[in-house]
């Protein structure tokens, strides 16, 4: 039996655990907080723009379970907002228990409130992960999906301080880089001015604090667009955002709200006194981050060098996924990289060739393209997502943007990759 240990229970970690389990491994998933899916608890956007293509590719590759959950929990489907088409907005208040139930049903061992702080290493292999209570979780192969946000000092140094986001470092402790403790030098993402990190791209308002008109429109249409007073328009604020697919002029000139259970405000932070000047938001209050009038979490400060099979370079039995594996943005991107890492963890332990997805799939291309770009000075300042900005333009140019599920299926069949993630290797 192959024993796989996944460190980090966000979307990437959950996807990696599921994929490794389906390949035949015994899987333990370690998560430092009391909830799975990480930033998925405050995100909620799926299938917008090229993410539709990537979701369908994952489904036909055999990794459909998490997309079935987000589709089932959708509050709105096939909606449009500035720069984005055919989006699904899932209910962030419902998805986590659904994912947790799925992992339990698959007999994945989940350790919550278990924070990894170090590794036990022998030669060039990790033997075990040391937890904050000094216990050790041993395994054959390890997958790091710890993300790139935290500890709190990073939010203070590179942002506006801890704003008490969904990651709740003050309560559950800071994220620790497993790859760094294993002797690998992490890569840091940059902003346009070459400072490090970037703010998370959105925050949440309590829907009950909004006017009846705004609330009813959100519940009905999924989207509300409210003009910002001219004196409060700050175009330069768009440069702070990690989510460059939403760094459009419309997002500075308007307050854009999306209905994900709470009211998702598409800006990293917005001063409360200015927010309450806008009609319908006179009583607005923040839900997450609770100091959303001032700041948000800072991301992309801990990326591991890897190959296109998601194996970390420099450690024999460590893979990575999600933001830990590159300057990726989004749930779909996390699930895509996590699923590949989980599948390859079993191949790696058995000494089999690792799977690299071909570049004529959107998933294969973003994994390879982001890996090429991160090695360049300009590439460290960019973010890679199926949903917009540079990579979505690339998808359209290369003919990778497909919105017909049948066409995606035929393409994957021609590559002989249909349901590959459902194949039991052991």
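-> sequence recovered:
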């Amino acid at each position: 039996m192959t024993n796989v240990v996944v460190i980090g229970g966000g979307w990437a970690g959950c996807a990696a655990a599921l994929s490794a389990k389906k390949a035949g491994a015994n899987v333990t998933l370690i998560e430092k907080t009391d909830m799975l899916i990480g930033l998925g608890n405050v995100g909620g956007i799926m299938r917008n723009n090229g993410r539709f293509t990537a979701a369908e590719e994952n489904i036909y590759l055999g990794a459909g379970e998490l997309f079935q959950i987000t589709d089932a929990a959708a509050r709105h489907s096939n909606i449009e907002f500035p720069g984005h088409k055919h989006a699904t907005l899932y209910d962030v208040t419902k998805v986590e228990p659904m994912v947790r139930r799925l992992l339990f049903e698959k007999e994945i061992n989940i350790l919550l409130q278990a924070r990894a702080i170090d590794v036990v290493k022998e030669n060039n292999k990790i033997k075990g992960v040391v937890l904050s209570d000094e216990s050790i979780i041993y395994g054959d192969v390890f997958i790091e999906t710890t993300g790139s946000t935290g500890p709190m000092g990073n939010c203070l140094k590179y942002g506006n301080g801890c704003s008490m986001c969904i990651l709740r470092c003050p309560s559950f402790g800071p994220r620790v880089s497993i790859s760094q403790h294993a002797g690998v030098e992490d890569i840091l993402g940059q902003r346009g001015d070459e400072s490090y990190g970037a703010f998370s791209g959105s925050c949440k308002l309590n829907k009950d604090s909004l006017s009846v008109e705004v609330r009813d429109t959100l519940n009905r249409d999924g989207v509300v667009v409210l003009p910002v007073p001219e004196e409060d328009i700050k175009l330069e604020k768009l440069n702070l955002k990690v989510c460059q697919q939403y760094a459009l002029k419309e997002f500075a000139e308007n307050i854009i709200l999306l209905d994900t259970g709470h009211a998702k405000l598409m800006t990293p932070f917005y001063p409360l006194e200015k927010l309450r000047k806008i009609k319908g938001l006179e009583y607005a209050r923040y839900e997450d981050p609770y100091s959303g009038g001032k700041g948000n979490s800072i991301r992309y400060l801990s990326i591991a060098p890897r190959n296109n099979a998601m194996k970390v370079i420099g450690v024999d039995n460590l893979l990575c996924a999600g933001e830990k594996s590159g300057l990726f943005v989004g749930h779909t991107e996390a699930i895509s990289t996590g699923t590949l890492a989980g599948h390859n963890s079993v191949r790696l332990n058995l000494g089999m060739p690792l799977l690299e997805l071909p570049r004529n799939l959107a998933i294969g291309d973003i994994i390879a393209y982001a890996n090429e770009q991160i090695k360049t000075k300009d590439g460290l300042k960019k973010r890679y997502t199926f949903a917009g900005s540079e990579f979505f333009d690339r998808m359209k140019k290369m003919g990778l943007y497909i919105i017909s599920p049948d066409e995606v299926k035929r393409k994957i069949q021609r590559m002989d990759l249909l349901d590959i993630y459902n194949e039991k290797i052991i």
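The longest strand covers residues 74-81.
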